Automatic annotation (TrEMBL):
SUPFAM superfamilies on file: Transmembrane di-heme cytochromes (SSF81342)
Protein name, UniProt field: Cytochrome B561
Protein's cellular compartments: Cell membrane
Keywords: Cell membrane, Electron transport, Heme, Iron, Membrane, Metal-binding, Transmembrane, Transmembrane helix, Transport
Sequence ranges assigned to domain Cytochrome b561 bacterial/Ni-hydrogenase in this UniProt record: 10-178
Membrane topology: Multi-pass membrane protein
Similarity comment: Belongs to the cytochrome b561 family.
Organism annotation: Thalassospira alkalitolerans
Length: 184
């Protein structure tokens, strides 16, 4: 399998980052949900630290993904419905935006709460803002709203892929699955 994408299919780097991001987003949502249920204590703090570390990983992967996407060609969209192509582009742009905004809002929120962001205990990120309780509360809402935006956008993305696969019966979904056979 080629590393780079072609006019007819996605390369292995794009596929690997796509699926790694999908796994990390699902993991982050589960961790976020779980840690919100925990009472304040050491276990909650450990899960918050893991959440932050994975969030920074997502931010770095999102930057890598965007740079990679800009540096290579994208396979030609299948189908001939113009509004679907425009909707797909808009949805992908929105996904890229939240891939950046979500971890940045978490980092800002931690800074405003006067809590550092340690990345797997290897290094600590600098604070982006000073302690600010009001800003923290605003960013907490933004972070929450972005998490549900991701759920909606991912749901739309998966729904569109299934529509292409089961209704249009084209190769849109197959060409993103690493082990799927080629073909339209």
């Amino acid at each position: 399998m080629a590393l780079r994408s072609t006019q007819t299919g996605f390369g292995s780097v794009t596929k690997a980052v796509h699926w790694l991001m999908a796994i990390l987003f699902a993991t982050m949502f589960a961790i976020g949900w779980y840690m919100d249920l925990l009472p304040l204590g050491m276990e909650k703090l450990v899960w918050i630290s893991r959440h932050k570390s994975i969030g920074v990983t997502i931010l770095l992967l999102a930057i890598l993904r965007i740079v990679w996407r800009l540096a290579e060609q994208t396979p030609t969209a299948l189908g001939d419905v113009a509004w679907e192509h425009r909707a797909a582009k808009a949805a992908h742009l929105a996904l890229y935006a939240v891939m950046l905004a979500m971890p940045l809002s978490g980092w800002l929120m931690s800074s405003a709460a006067n809590y550092s962001v340690s990345v797997f205990g290897l290094f600590t990120l600098p604070d982006l803002v000073g302690p600010d309780k009001v800003l923290y509360e605003q960013l907490k809402f933004v972070h929450w709203a972005l998490s549900w935006s991701i759920v909606g956008l991912v749901g739309l993305h998966v729904g569109a892929a299934f529509k292409h696969h089961f209704i249009n019966r084209d190769a849109t979904l197959r060409r993103m699955i690493p082990w799927a056979a080629k073909g339209n």
